[in-house]
Structures are given as C-alpha cells and as structure tokens.
C-alpha cells in the first residue's frame, strides 16, 4: 500500500484537476452533518464508517483504520468522476486535516466549511441523546487548532 500523505500541493503541476474536498470543521453536534446532507454532494462520514465497522460511535484502537478507510473512499469517489466530495468529521486538529491532503496520483484542493456553533449549544444538544459526548466536546473546544494559511485550505463562506 502506498503512503501518499506526504504530497505537498506546491510540488504538483500547476494544472488543477478541479477536484475539491470539502472538510467539515466543527465540534460534535454542531450541525456539520446537517449542512453536508443538504448539499447533494457525496459524503464520506467517519462516524458512519465507524458504526458500520464496529457498531460503536468510537473505538480508539481502530481509529487509524477508520481514517484510512475514509481516505480510500475519498480517493474512490474522485476516481469515479465526482468533482466535489465532503469529508464529514470534526477536523478541528491540524493532524486530522493534514491526513486528507491530496495524493500524488489523485489531486484535490481542500476547502473548509466551518460550523462555528458554541460549545454550550453543542453540549446541550448532546446531553439528551449522547451525554458521553459532553466531555469530548469540551476536549475539542479546548484543543481545537485554527486553520493556518500554510495548510493551503480555502475557507468557504
């Protein structure tokens, strides 16, 4: 298996493929999936992959496998001819966004749709259905990393 995560957009030919990966960025229960589902664009949803593989919403020992599966799905959708794909995950950490850089053989631009719902609202939403998410929301709210210009990610309005 080829590890293509080291691709740097600056090293690619100037000719753009026109492929766009929209990274959803926001806290759990912020409304990322709701926005994504309204777009009519193929969605790669890490939560759905995790549930399909394990029946659980989170399982630390296999998170690397979940991310690898999601990356393969993104690549497959571009190979199938889709020009825009949404990645539905928190993407609040640099390392999460970096994992979904383009591939040397399949080029895409990364865009971000930031859903900036306050943590207090997200925790209220989680409290009734998924109370175990409340500390996760607190953790992400404390540790989130702003998208840096060096990441070469265009922010969508």
Radius of gyration: 16 Å
Q: State the helix count.
A: 6
Give me the side-by-side strand order of the main sheet. 2-3-1-4-5
Question: Given this structure, which CATH class is correct?
Answer: Alpha Beta
Q: Assign the structural class, choosing from mainly alpha, mainly beta, alpha/beta, alpha+beta, or little secondary structure.
A: alpha/beta
- CATH arch. level architecture: 3-Layer(aba) Sandwich
Average pLDDT across residues?
Answer: 90
How many domains? 1
Which residue ranges are poorly predicted, with pLDDT under 50 across at least 5 consecutive positions?
12-16
The tally of strands reads 5
How far from one another are the termini?
A: 36 Å
CATH superfamily: P-loop containing nucleotide triphosphate hydrolases
Beta-strand percent range: 5-15%
CATH fold naming: Rossmann fold
> Biggest sheet, open or closed, and with what strands and sense?
5 strands, parallel
Order of helices and strands: EHEHHEHEHHE
Morphology: globular
């Amino acid at each position: 298996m080829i590890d293509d995560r080291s691709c740097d957009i600056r090293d690619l030919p100037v000719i753009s493929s026109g492929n766009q990966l929209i990274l959803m960025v926001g806290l759990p229960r912020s409304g990322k999936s709701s926005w994504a589902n309204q777009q009519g664009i193929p969605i790669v949803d890490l939560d759905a992959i995790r549930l399909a593989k394990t029946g659980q919403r989170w399982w630390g020992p296999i998170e690397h496998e979940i991310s690898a599966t999601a990356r393969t799905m993104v690549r497959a959708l571009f190979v199938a001819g889709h020009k825009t794909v949404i990645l539905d995950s928190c993407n609040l950490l640099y390392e999460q966004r970096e994992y979904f850089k383009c591939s040397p053989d399949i080029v895409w631009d990364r865009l971000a749709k930031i859903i900036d719902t306050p943590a207090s609202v997200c925790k209220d939403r989680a409290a009734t259905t998924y109370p175990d998410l409340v500390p996760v929301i607190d953790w992400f709210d404390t540790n989130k990393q702003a998208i840096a210009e060096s990441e070469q990610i265009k922010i969508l309005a």
